[in-house]
Amino acid sequence: MRQLTTPREEQRLLTVVASAEETALLTEVVELRARNEQLGRALASRAVIDQARGMVMALAPCSSERAWDLLVEVSQHCNVKLRDVAVALVATTKDEALPEPIRRELRRALRRLHLADRR
């Protein structure tokens, strides 16, 4: 009866299997690190967006949901990411000027919000 694999072939197969397992683990580590980094960025973005929401709520007494909608509206009209709108708005607390397109759209959105509240 012939042996299916020789000891040398078995060793090579074990090496390949170990390498495949290591490759799978390394791939998983890389994916987890990328996901962790993405989640960290999302948390940082979320914090600044929440600060901007609070600022909008103070500017135009409204609910958190309406403040969110207003920021989304400004973002869409300016074609600027929501997080960038929020960063720009929060930066005004450090004496940075709000970029003109965002300032203009924020003013319009606040005006629409006030008009809607009067009805």
TrEMBL record:
In terms of SUPFAM superfamilies, this protein maps to:
CheY-like (SSF52172)
Q: Coiled-coil intervals in this record?
A: none
Q: Which domain of life is it from?
A: Bacteria
Q: Entry's Pfam families?
A: ANTAR
Q: Which residues form the ANTAR domain?
A: 29-90
Question: What InterPro entries does its record include?
Answer: ANTAR, CheY-like_superfamily, WH-like_DNA-bd_sf
One annotated GO molecular function is: RNA binding
- What is this protein's record name? ANTAR domain-containing protein
